[in-house]
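Hi there, hope your week has been kind to you so far. Thanks so much in advance, here it is.
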Amino acid sequence: MNILMIHPHDLYSSQEPWTVRIKNIACQFTRRGHSVKLVYFPLDKKDANKKFLNNGIESISLNRNLGVFILLRNIVQIIRLAKWSDVIHFQKCYYYAALPALIAGWINKKPVHYDWDDWETKIFYYSNQKQKIVGEFINIFEQLIPKIVDSVSVSSAHLRNLSLRRGVSLKNIFPAHVGADLELFKPDPDLSGNIKRKYNINNYLVLYLGQLHGGQYVELFIKAARIVLKNRRDVTFIIVGDGYRMRELQDLTVSFGINKHVIFAGSDLHNNIPYYIADADICVACFEKNDITLCKSPLKIVEYLACGKAVVASNVGEIRNMVGGVGLLTKSGDVGSLANGVLTLLANKNLRERLGKWARQRAEKKYNWSVTAENLLRAYQTALNCNKKA
């Protein structure tokens, strides 16, 4: 099968790490003998309009800047690429990627698959409440797209229910939760020690992975750290990620008097993340309950699981399915509950080890990119069958 995959963000920038989803899925397809071309939109326009091979996959970069002529040029290029494909796959509802994909499918009579992994309208409004015009433009696209494509994959039950409410037939909706690269993320003693040596850490290490911007809830982690440190001082907290809230969050640790116990490591390459997880005694994924988190299947959680680590996570959305039985679930948005979960695991080495073993087993059985890829291939076959009948 020839698969044209389109993502609206930069596949090769640490500023947009969520793009590992489409890259890993593309690699899974090539391992199964399928051919993939991967279109993406780099942050820097200097990197646009290039073609190159990466891991046997042809990558094509296009320009994401505003402009009618830029959009028309992108549409023409994707129409040409779509002639080669059997299926067109695009992720997210951003117009500059979604619109060319839809037009290319219509003109070339190719089935189109939509990979819906986040409620983008809600994410936009979280940080841009006053930009109603842009927000409603995103909302219109996000409501329309599931109705007009041939198949839809969703990362959560909440998005599946949204698809149903928007008129998508259940037989055309497929689960596509996030997965871990089981070779990159695994229990590996050879990775241990690097991060603790780098930061001169000689005690317990509690890790949070995530971008420091709206909808990531790092402040919950910091507030829980303050409670933990009131009970015991042999703990260091590390935050791996970057974003516009960095200074605000650093100031928060200073105001709490815990800044010497909280490390802001900044962003790092995805291939380096296993080093941080390897040295962590406990890994945390904390969220409030809202429309954004109900839709998520967080990547960091499956990577924690795959590394065989004890996890403390908020009980919201898909997280119960991911962590339930192999980690500690805490009340969403509740700092005290989160702190108690961390304290419980700090006090019980045997429990940490048992949960870590079960976590790896969960990742091997369900939460890996191989399972996600198989589900998508079933979705493509459904899309192909629908397209033939049309």
Observations:
- DSSP finds 16 helices and 14 strands in the chain.
- The chain has a mean pLDDT of 94.
- The longest strand covers residues 35-40.
- The longest helix spans residues 369-389.
